Amino acid sequence: VKKAGHAGTLDPLASGVLPIALDEATKTIPYLVDTKKRYKFSVSWGQQTDTDDSEGDIINESNVYPGIDQIENILSSFIGQVTQIPPRYSAIKIKGKRAYSLARENKSFEMPSRTIRVLDLRVTRELKTDLTEFEVYCEKGFYVRSLARDLAEKLNTFGHIKELERLEVGPFKLKNSFPLETFDNLVHSAPAGSVEKQFLLPLDSVLDDIPALTISDEEAKMFCHGQAIYKEISNDFIPTGSDVLIKNSEKSIGIAVFLESKLKPKKVFSSII
Q1: What percentage of the chain's residues is helix, strand, coil (to nearest 5)?
Q2: Which one, out of 1, 60, 74, 223, has a CA that is 20 to 30 A from the CA of 121?
Q3: How does residue 273 score in pLDDT terms, banded at 50, 70 and 90?
Q4: Cβ atoms of 123 and 132 closer than 8 Å
């Protein structure tokens, strides 16, 4: 492996799915970062922390602990296109500097709000009087810690994230994942080559939601050398401006942009040319 990358950081206390891309698969990371994600999390009621999770210092307290009926009555206002202010302790840049760095230096600054989309939000169970478990399905740019803070505010109390687990990132799900220590043990104990066959997925696993097109050997050579390929394709099948997964002999060789009856190379997976 010459290079590796990941699709989306996890908060320090969080666990769950973190897709890792190796070598040429790193070119598909932007497509994975933009996919939908599902989280399971619990909110501890009655206390607000400066980080909006259990690792921070308590800054506000309340003796109000909402019940499930009260919580369910307000959930609809957090579903759909909503405005959210990210936590102060986050990786968002403020004038070129990470927000968490400014917060740790006790600098005064305002976090800009952003519009995000929540596809589903529901209570899964009440763990204790002051602890409720939820599940949320959302698009990119969403902060679960901000959701916990805002839920509590809507319920006239305070709250923070107690536990957070990412269940899904696009096509990758927790039930099909494995702990890093498991993989580390396999690397040192499994026969040569068996790890790749059993545990690594093809790079186009990320691209199952974009249209695919198979081209000839001659066209594949042109594509891999950066030349556009002319194709008469209906806009009903592939809209102009869309990304297209390019295949040759059932192998994915790159991604093109479809513009004016031609496929313009956008990313070429050189390792399989």
Answers
A1: 25, 35, 35
A2: 60
A3: very low
A4: yes
